[in-house]
Amino acid sequence: MATITFNDEIYDESYATFEQKMNEALEKEQDLTIYICTNGGEFCLSQNMTDIINNYPYYVEVIFSGWVFSAGMYIMTNLDYTLVDVNLTEATEGMVHLADMPLSMRGFKDKDSYSSFAKKNGNIINECYLKNIKRFLTEKEMKVVNSGKEVYLNHDRMAQIIETLTKEAEEKLMGEFADE
Predict the structure, then answer these.
(1) Which of 7, 1, 132, 14 is nearest to 65 (CA)?
(2) Strand 2-7 vs strand 32-38: parallel, antiparallel, or unpaired?
(3) pTM
(4) Which residues contact 72 (CB under 8 A, 6 or more apart)?
(5) How does pLDDT run across 41-90, given as a tens digit for each residue?
(6) Rounded to whole angstroms, how far apart are CA atoms 29 and 58?
(7) Helices (H) and strands (E) in the chain — how many of each?
(8) Residue 106, strand partner residues
(9) Who is most buried in 145, 152, 157, 159, counting CB within 10 A?
């Protein structure tokens, strides 16, 4: 069993280190425990991290610890709970807000050109980011998020989210088992 600790903002260098550690464990055919504590980071890289974890062919347990902010919440709510065991430590808190894509990554020179694009096409980044998270937020909390502010989730709310996703995964597996 190998352990990977990701305690950083999700950006190019930290993602590359995470990917390298995942590949090393894969080469050794090791089961994994992954600790994640992050104050957020680049949304696109959080999607990649989620895919790497979900597609790892051996046993994986992900333990969220401390801060699970922004892009970290995306990872937590988009892991495949039928494949990955997910837990959190006692002092874990979450934070959700609208995703902010660096303009240079979208090919825009200023906020006005991105705002114009987003109004015409919808904010694709936030639709994807909030797809699973928003079902765990109250209507009032979604209004706060949509106004551009942050919503913080205490440990009990985080545990509730994981419990719900785990139960849904178990029901999905039981349904697949019954269909056989």
Answers:
(1) 7
(2) parallel
(3) 0.85
(4) 10, 36, 37, 38, 39, 40, 46, 64, 94
(5) 988 899 999 999 999 999 999 999 999 999 999 999 999 999 999 999 99
(6) 7
(7) 8, 6
(8) none
(9) 145
